[in-house]
Amino acid sequence: MMDIIKLQGKENQSFFKELKKRTTVDFKDYEKPVEEILEAVKTQGDAGLLEYTQRFDGIDLKERGLRVREEEFDEAYNLVEEDFIQALRRAIDNIRSYHERQRQNSWFTTSEGIFLGQKVTPIARVGIYVPGGTAAYPSSVLMNTIPAQVAGVKGIVMVTPPDREGKVSPGVLVAAKELGVKEVYRVGGAQAVAALAFGTESIKRVDKIVGPGNIYVATAKRAVYGYVDIDMIAGPSEVLVIADETANPKFVAADLLSQAEHDEMASALLITTSEKLGMEVREELIRQTQQLERRDIIEKSLRNYGKIMVVEDLKIGVALANEIAPEHLELCVEKPFELLDAVENAGAIFLGHYTPEPLGDYFAGPNHVLPTSGTAKFYSPLSVEDFIKKSSVIYYSQEALRQVKEDVMTLAAEEGLTAHKNSIKVRYEDDDK
Amino acid sequence: MMDIIKLQGKENQSFFKELKKRTTVDFKDYEKPVEEILEAVKTQGDAGLLEYTQRFDGIDLKERGLRVREEEFDEAYNLVEEDFIQALRRAIDNIRSYHERQRQNSWFTTSEGIFLGQKVTPIARVGIYVPGGTAAYPSSVLMNTIPAQVAGVKGIVMVTPPDREGKVSPGVLVAAKELGVKEVYRVGGAQAVAALAFGTESIKRVDKIVGPGNIYVATAKRAVYGYVDIDMIAGPSEVLVIADETANPKFVAADLLSQAEHDEMASALLITTSEKLGMEVREELIRQTQQLERRDIIEKSLRNYGKIMVVEDLKIGVALANEIAPEHLELCVEKPFELLDAVENAGAIFLGHYTPEPLGDYFAGPNHVLPTSGTAKFYSPLSVEDFIKKSSVIYYSQEALRQVKEDVMTLAAEEGLTAHKNSIKVRYEDDDK
């Protein structure tokens, strides 16, 4: 179970280094087989896709076809609970409403003879990878699709691996249908990434690929990066809870466990000003873990990457959080809004005693695709921003350019670029006559 | 000199493929020596930096020191023209004023018992790489530093290689000083990137590294990516001019040449509805090239990556431009604003006959760090956005969470994550009693 330590100085640096090292996945072992798959799909198109689907997913899709048919979406609705559909719809409303606030407009500014602006255009076509099997998460469909839709992306295509009967997770299909995504292909793995990046007879190539996947998918995304854009390659998940003596140990333990159950590399950390709370949380962790289905994963995760740290005051706690830059940060303290300003590095910040992290995973509205393993120092949650791009716009009138021509020529000359200078000069050669 | 071709169908696809291939730099040959340099600086700190600076830049900095001293900035002012300083100041005003419009604010929204928001925080510390020698461009200092300053980045540090006497380009120092950047180190190459990424006794590590550099610098940036963030690795530069019969062939030729002089891989393309203009531009290219200093580079660039394409109407021209997604797009037509809406993919768009691309390189205000080689389909110009990151913020009251608890638990259960479900459940266990 988790250590409890009292932090004085820098004594825990080695643990923090271990935490960061979790991301250093070695892609090298996977590069060669992935390269082969990419090349096969690039050159053979659908034939390559079908071949690798047969080999890896154990299903021949020649009969059934790559694209999910209309009636399969309808069937999916019969395979899920009505409660789930209703909950999903309310989640969609919340997520859409939050992301709509991220929308950016083109803008311009003018002064005499000058027009400057920034034109916002959605990316034309985006591919969303949705894992299959036990990792087929409808919430992942929502979180990757909705920002693209709000951004105005017209072409949204989804790929997800088939089971041995060629079927696709009903939860995923229902989520896709609720969002109005109609183009879904039952392919997964590196072969699906190849189809999205290069295109095949059935699947038109995209400009950007997003969504989580296993090591083959991640390696393939890295390999096609440059041909197309990709989202960040997510590392293992983590939560950091900062708690004072007002926190409820039962709640804190439950939140730490909800992170630890993700996988053995997940990290759950508690920083508290109350040693008493730290000890109570530890007891609760032991008690609650016994009742949880994914207890084996949880025990390994807590043992290797869990830690309870006791600090003197909340200020030190927040400073430490900024150093760790966690994916999820919970402020389980009496006055969480008073700490908010000091938080600099965190993917998502959960305030107070009734804002557990899973609320954000599914329902509240903000995106659950967040920077992991300390990258919150420079990355942001997935957002509408990731599905648009901008063009600068410049217009100068003849007279406006005349006013500044000497300056531009001086700067070009200083850099030794005479053709740059010349492009201004030719426009006013007649002035001097 | 450049070909003139009449476009009918898809006949030019192979040329466009060649254009895109320009970016496929093979970093592999450089990875091993760069890895060695990174490791040496990581383990030896300043000693490693000094050693590699001696080896590659031919200067022992033990006496002179790594950091540029106050009096060196003053000396630099004596080595540049007063005209240059004045032009630089006016450029800074324009660039700052444009980028200030990109600033984003934190926002929040509330409803009963719920507070959702997005907190914007500048990246804490940024390193700017400025090349030395003939590629020491003061404009590059402005374009990389100003957006970071407008974003609110507190720690801005600059590195730039020394000459054989240990001195740094005066234009670069003047630009740094005008912007108030005080922390400048005379180191370059992969060793400078290593110092920024890992830190040494003299140079504190940064969170993000931006700025152009040679193949060693680019390879080093790729290698440290993940420890720190980096900007995009820029490919060769390109301009696409769309011109109708109102365009002046002298102006168009001069603009194409200003792009071609960058390097042999640079691409200058003209799409025109007027075959007559195409032929006149071709004549002008030949005439003007003779008068230019960088004629050797220009001739190679035009021969390999230059092309004049005649199309039937402007609509076809813009569609082709969207496919090419050029770094710079000039609309040298009678009514450029009427074409603007149809432009989807371009780094920067220059409208009309008096907005040559070099105006944007130096002076107008928008950033000159732009997506190259077709990546404008998914990337944007360097902006304030690149120097901030966002955190989602969520607060739910006890009552607000109670209202939605069933939905969250239903969604968690559907995904088989029972500890997620449990984190909601524990908060309301007493409700049921």
Automatic annotation (TrEMBL), chains A, B:
Question: From the UniProt record, which GO molecular function terms apply?
Answer: histidinol dehydrogenase activity; NAD binding; zinc ion binding
Please list the GO biological process terms of this entry.
Answer: L-histidine biosynthetic process
Residues annotated for Zn(2+) binding in this entry: Q259, H262, D361, H420
- Extract the Gene3D superfamilies matched here: 1.20.5.1300, Nitrogenase molybdenum iron protein domain
Keyword Metal-binding on entry: yes
Q: Which Pfam families match?
A: Histidinol_dh (PF00815)
- Recorded catalytic activity of this chain's protein: L-histidinol + 2 NAD(+) + H2O = L-histidine + 2 NADH + 3 H(+)
EC number per UniProt: 1.1.1.23
Q: Tell me its cofactors.
A: Zn(2+)
Q: Which InterPro entries match?
A: Ald_DH/histidinol_DH, Histidinol_DH_CS, Histidinol_DH_monofunct, Hstdl_DH
Sites binding NAD(+) sit at Y129, Q191, N214
Q: Give a Gene Ontology cellular component term annotated to this protein.
A: cytosol
Report the superkingdom from the record: Bacteria
Task: Name the pathway.
Answer: Amino-acid biosynthesis; L-histidine biosynthesis; L-histidine from 5-phospho-alpha-D-ribose 1-diphosphate: step 9/9
Which positions in this protein are listed as binding substrate?
Answer: S237, Q259, H262, H328, D361, E415, H420
Q: What binding details are noted for the cofactor?
A: Binds 1 zinc ion per subunit.
The UniProt keywords, alphabetically, are:
Amino-acid biosynthesis, Histidine biosynthesis, Metal-binding, NAD, Oxidoreductase, Zinc
Any idea which residues are catalytic in this one?
E327 (proton acceptor), H328 (proton acceptor)
Quote the function comment for this protein. Catalyzes the sequential NAD-dependent oxidations of L-histidinol to L-histidinaldehyde and then to L-histidine.
State the family it belongs to. Belongs to the histidinol dehydrogenase family.
Q: What HAMAP family does this protein's entry cite?
A: HisD
PANTHER family per record: HISTIDINE BIOSYNTHESIS TRIFUNCTIONAL PROTEIN, HISTIDINOL DEHYDROGENASE HDH
Q: What is this protein called?
A: Histidinol dehydrogenase
* Provenance organism: Natronincola ferrireducens
Gene name, please?
Answer: hisD
